[in-house]
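can u do me a favor
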């Protein structure tokens, strides 16, 4: 049965990757003409925006930013008293942003040479994309050139879209040590978030042998619930929104197990049929979120814009640092739960041999229900973290993360929670480090290529167990 499931998953990966590649090519290759009206289209209200702040953190007003596409200006904006600016765009596509240096106050200039121009910034349909122009004082720049101040590495220039095509904003060229370290940090951050969401997916497969394609929608629901509670209409602290998301994810996971999957198992529904049902459930939940949340990309009102901290050659915002550390702390707690508690030992027993565990007196249904609740809660929390680091909450964000989740689970070994953790970290690192040599739009493809290579050498995954088929 497992080889058949693996074949189905591999086919799904290939289909999704082909679709994503075609969509990306269509997006980047969208023709634009000089006489296209620079007004918002009926398809959406995409724009580029940001907040300009001086070296002292105070907003800069009266600074002009211009957006160009194929060498033609499509719009410009001037920052207001709060330093905020926004340029409406006529259509999705790839744009170049230019900061008018003549409008900057005296003593302020871009941190990096040529930093007044951001090229290849990709904007998706209905996306209000936030970008940042890092600025420093002229005296600080002179000190850095003289060597009296450590040269700061340029981290991502995006406030919330570090992992999207054309948005990395790295100033370094080639494979400089500083850039490599920066991308390693970005890869660890992404891998930790993938690991949180993938652990529950792996535990569910280990105990039920079900490949749950609706897991990505639980990620999205967690991010959306946190947004509703913390931003609109709740306006409560984001910590409370995150707790609400965890509760909602756990309840949804438990509800799906008790109301859908358990009755199907009692009726001896085959795994292939349940696999197809999970795809249908994924589609239903995804478009239900679209109806209730809308197709706009929103962001949390708290921690949206933060100045980066410089830890030696590494730049990272306090928000991203806390998210990364919290992710690893949660993964450690999950490991302790599996190794030290009775429920964790029972879950490992059910995953190892369900019939023997039941014969030994373990309440298998209760263990599986607990795994679904934990998996749903972890997926929802991962959605909150992902929305924070990406700076956007949108209706299909969980589906966009699903391929990387499955890649981490399969790379680490199907059914192994520890394997999912290790595999997810590897996927995050590969996807980010590939930006050293290849366009960011291909980073997920390289992660899946590493998955294929590892499975050719070790079909059961890094920590998986080899099994005989037949």
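np, heres the sequence
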């Amino acid at each position: 049965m497992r080889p058949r499931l693996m074949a189905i998953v591999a086919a799904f990966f290939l289909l999704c990757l082909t679709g994503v590649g075609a969509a990306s090519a269509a997006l980047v290759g969208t023709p634009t003409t000089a006489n296209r009206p620079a007004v918002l289209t009926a398809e959406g209200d995409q724009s580029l925006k940001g907040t300009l702040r001086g070296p002292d953190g105070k907003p800069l007003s009266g600074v002009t930013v211009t957006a160009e596409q194929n060498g033609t200006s499509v719009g410009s904006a001037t920052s207001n008293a709060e330093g905020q600016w926004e340029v409406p765009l006529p259509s999705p596509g790839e744009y170049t942003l230019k900061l008018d240096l003549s409008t900057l106050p005296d003593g302020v200039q871009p941190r990096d040479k040529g930093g007044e121009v951001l090229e290849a910034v990709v904007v998706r349909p209905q996306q209000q994309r936030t970008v940042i122009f890092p600025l420093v004082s002229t005296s600080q720049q002179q000190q850095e050139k003289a060597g009296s101040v450590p040269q700061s590495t340029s981290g991502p220039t995006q406030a919330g879209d570090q992992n999207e095509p054309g948005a990395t904003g790295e100033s370094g060229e080639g494979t400089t040590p500083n850039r490599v370290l920066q991308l390693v940090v970005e890869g660890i951050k992404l891998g930790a978030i993938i690991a949180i969401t993938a652990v529950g997916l792996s535990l569910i497969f280990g105990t039920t042998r079900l490949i749950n394609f609706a897991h990505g929608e639980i990620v999205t629901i967690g991010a959306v619930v946190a947004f509703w509670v913390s931003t609109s209409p709740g306006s409560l602290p984001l910590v409370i929104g995150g707790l609400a998301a965890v509760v909602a994810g756990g309840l949804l996971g438990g509800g799906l197990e008790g109301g859908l999957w358990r009755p199907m198992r009692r009726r001896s529904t085959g795994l292939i049929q349940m696999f197809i049902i999970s795809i249908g459930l994924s589609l239903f939940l995804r478009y239900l979120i679209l109806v209730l949340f809308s197709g706009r990309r929103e962001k949390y009102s708290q921690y949206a814009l933060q100045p980066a901290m410089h830890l030696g050659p590494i730049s990272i915002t306090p928000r991203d640092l806390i998210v990364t550390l919290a992710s690893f702390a949660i993964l450690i707690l999950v490991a302790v739960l599996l190794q030290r508690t009775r429920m964790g030992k029972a879950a490992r027993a059910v995953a190892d041999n369900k019939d023997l565990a039941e014969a030994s007196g373990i309440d298998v249904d209760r263990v599986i229900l607990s795994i679904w609740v934990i998996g749903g809660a972890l997926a929802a929390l991962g959605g909150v973290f992902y929305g924070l680091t990406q700076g956007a909450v949108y209706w299909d964000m969980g589906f966009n993360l699903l391929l990387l989740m499955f890649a981490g689970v399969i790379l680490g070994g199907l059914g192994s929670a520890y394997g999912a953790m290790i595999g997810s970290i590897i996927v995050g690192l590969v996807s980010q480090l590939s930006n050293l040599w290849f366009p960011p739009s291909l980073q997920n493809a390289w992660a899946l290529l590493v998955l294929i290579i590892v499975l050719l050498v070790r079909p059961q995954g890094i920590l998986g167990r080899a099994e005989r088929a037949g």
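The CA atoms of residues 101 and 221 lie 43 Å apart. hope that helps!!
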